[in-house]
Design brief:
It contains 15 helices and 9 strands. Helix 1 packs across helix 2, helix 1 packs across helix 3 and helix 10 crosses helix 12. The N and C termini lie far apart (about 50 Å).
Length: about 300
């Protein structure tokens, strides 16, 4: 167990209350998983369909705990220089030219090289920043998009909460960051990384929670329209779509209806605003072919 004094949260319920105050309505499972990650000092590995609130959980935790959110966005081909650190070569070159000018060409090469690899020329990427600026929340977003080699590197960093910069020495976090990893399951993440983490699968919220989320995010939204949008989105998720709508699309749809002055979701209003909730032409065609009025009516 690590020293969690920077995040004095006594229970999952207390953490859920803190998250609710910053606008994230966590169910019991999410609140418990996040609380255990804090208390045990373990990374939290979150999987689920896009739009279930994985990324926004990390942002809400940072806000609720009063610490910085540091995000590492994973992508195909990401390597350690993009995640950990790199050297500021243009500034190093300017520095070297300045040294040469000041010494009138009589520059000691060893001394010059040592001066180039000092902390002032180090560009800290997200992982190094998280170790230096802890306590913080480190979001490793869409880790499933990275490759096996990067996973192994990430596992080492998370396991030690430290890295070694050859020119400068070891950088170790005084307090390990709270790490949230997310995956949309575009590929399976290796068991070694999962074993290091606590795990939680995020489902789409139940109807009442989704209605509450809509009304929290859009204070002017009526209870009737919020219920209609949430119900319609739930039915759309039951259709075989390329991209089932998540909570973000529910919010976009309700906001679009409000911008048009609509007070209820009927077939005409749904057709006019379908682009707010469905983001593929094939999905829109499939839903229209199935009959918007039938989907809205359940």
């Amino acid at each position: 167990m690590v020293d969690a004094s920077w995040a004095p949260v006594a229970s999952p319920d207390e953490l859920a209350d803190s998250l609710e105050r910053v606008g994230y309505l966590a169910d019991e499972g999410v609140a418990t998983a996040a609380f255990l990650a804090l208390r045990l000092g373990r990374p939290l590995f979150c999987e689920g369909e896009p739009g279930t609130g994985k990324t926004s959980l990390a942002a809400a935790l940072a806000e609720a705990l009063g610490v910085e959110l540091i995000k590492l966005q994973c992508h195909e081909g990401i390597d350690f220089t993009q995640a950990l650190y790199d050297w500021d070569f243009p500034r190093q070159l300017l520095h070297l030219r300045a040294l040469e000018a000041a010494s009138h060409g009589e520059l000691d090469s060893d001394e010059a090289e040592r001066s180039l690899y000092s902390r002032r020329f180090l560009l800290a990427r997200p992982l190094l920043r998280a170790l230096e600026e802890s306590p913080c929340v480190l979001l490793v977003d869409e880790v499933d998009r990275a490759d096996d080699e990067f996973e192994a590197f990430l596992l080492e960093v998370l396991g030690e909460s430290a890295v070694t910069v050859p020119e400068l020495g070891e950088v170790r976090a005084e307090v390990p960051p709270l790490v949230i990893l997310t995956s949309n399951r575009t590929r399976e993440v290796h068991d070694a990384l999962k074993r290091r983490c606590l795990y939680h699968w995020l489902e789409h919220p139940e109807l009442a929670r989704e209605v509450a989320i809509l009304r929290r995010r859009l204070p002017g939204l009526s209870a009737q329209l919020a219920n209609q949008v949430a119900n319609a989105v739930r039915r759309l998720r039951e259709v075989e779509l390329l991209k089932p709508p998540g909570v973000a699309e529910s919010i976009d749809w309700a906001e679009a209806l409000g911008a048009l002055g609509r007070t209820e979701l009927d077939a005409a209003a749904a057709a006019a605003t379908l682009g707010a909730v469905l983001k593929y032409r094939e999905d829109a065609q499939r839903v229209v072919a199935a009959g918007l009025d039938q989907i809205l009516a359940g």
